[in-house]
Amino acid sequence: MHKHPQPVRMLRWRPAAAALAAAVVASVFLAVPSAQANEPADPPAAQQMPAPTPGFPLPSTHSQQAYDPASDFTSKWTRADAKQIMAQSDSTVAPGVNSMSPDVTMPEIPEDFPTMNDDVWVWDTWSLTDENANQISYKGWDVIFSLVADRDAGYGFDQRHWNARIGYFFRKTNADPATDKWNYGGHVFADGASIGNTEWSGSTRLMQGNHVNVFYTATTFYDVAERNAGGGGIAPDAAIAKALGNIHADQNGVTFDGFTHTKLLEPDGEMYQNKAQNPGFAFRDPYTFEDPAHPGKTYMVFEGNTGGTRGEYECKAEDLGYQPGDPNAENLNEVNSSGAYYQTANVGLAVADNKDLTKWSFLPPILSANCVNDQTERPQIFIQNEGGKNKYYLFTISHQFTYAAGMRGPDGVYGFAGDGIRSDYQPMNNSGLALASPTDLNLPSESPERPTPSQNGRQFQAYSHYVQPGGLVQSFIDNVNGVRGGSLSPTVKINFRDGISQVDRTFGQNGLGPFGYLPTNLNVGGAGHYK
Asked: Which family does it belong to (predicted)?
């Protein structure tokens, strides 16, 4: 493990640094409970949560208490919590200026950003990892996985979703991230091999020897041609799947082969909404990990929606979460009359029933955002040692346009802190917002395809953030002041501790690190350190 030196030109892995990092890894794993999964992020300068803002409701009270992962306790990201996003936003800025605190605002990406690859658009990206979310360098190569789509197939950037495949990139571990480009290896799976006709996001784990498990969302679209032409609308099917295969590396690079695909989970319609209940249901983005508090068990978090027919949910007082007697609290009947009940995002949990990770059982959601937001995409569990015990951070991403009526928030990273996988999660910074592109929250917004006139031109500059060891955050470029993306963003760094976060503007150049910087913090080869 290594900290991230400043400035960017120094960000290079050298043999001496590798030896030092290996020693640090050993000492860290011996110094904390068996183990701590991730390199701790640096602490923020601020030591306290933001103070209450007059005229806004107080946030809900959260204990961070841990519960058994198999229990039926579900933490709630409440409207009272999410209202803090606007409470912490400046209502007096000129139209189109960023209204959010610099502590949660990503620095501006330049319009002349480099193209990562001339043949494919690149978006959701993740690293090759181990069971503890360490980022693995395999036989001297760093390896990342991305959703990709053909730039020259005749459809546009916004049609990429139903043409998505999982591709991979590699480069030498000692490459200079400021100058050395990632090598594109092509699609991970052979054409027609995966379950479904479209591959959406997931995670990839190195297993025993040279085996890898690629967990992914198997999505099946029945109207791809119509959608590419600007029409369509038939609801897709979705399942969570995995593929067990092999990774190979030599002096020329990295290849994969031998994949066997297994369907793992489909939404049950009870805890997790299915297609029959909502054609726009969310069921995707599997992320697996082992929990040091429950040795021998492998868990998965994923994006879901609360089970039940769309539009039949009724907002409850606990979804609003206002403290008794709060003069700024909303009226429950008025919230329901607004249609806020259409937004029912949750973060799901499942547990593996065998060591092969081919059989899984649903557990109740660990977080719900009923009547707050409709999407909690690409969830991650990030465990770091704080004050001698492991603290669990649940990170997820969400959009402006998926917020419920009466709510407002930016595209970006949302985080929640607790004492276990299943906790009464405390929203980071009291609001949940940890990192977002510059946005004027006083103005309405549409989407990256249709930005609101006079809004900040970088409100959709980056999305699909992936939090890495040490607080590094990777994302892809979507829309920078009207210039569409499809390449990886500059990596930024957030410092966080005790549920408080702050963008590190000393990292890189004014807070922007190298484009596509996903450094490894463990090096393995052959059988590696795996059982």
From this structure: Belongs to the glycosyl hydrolase 68 family.
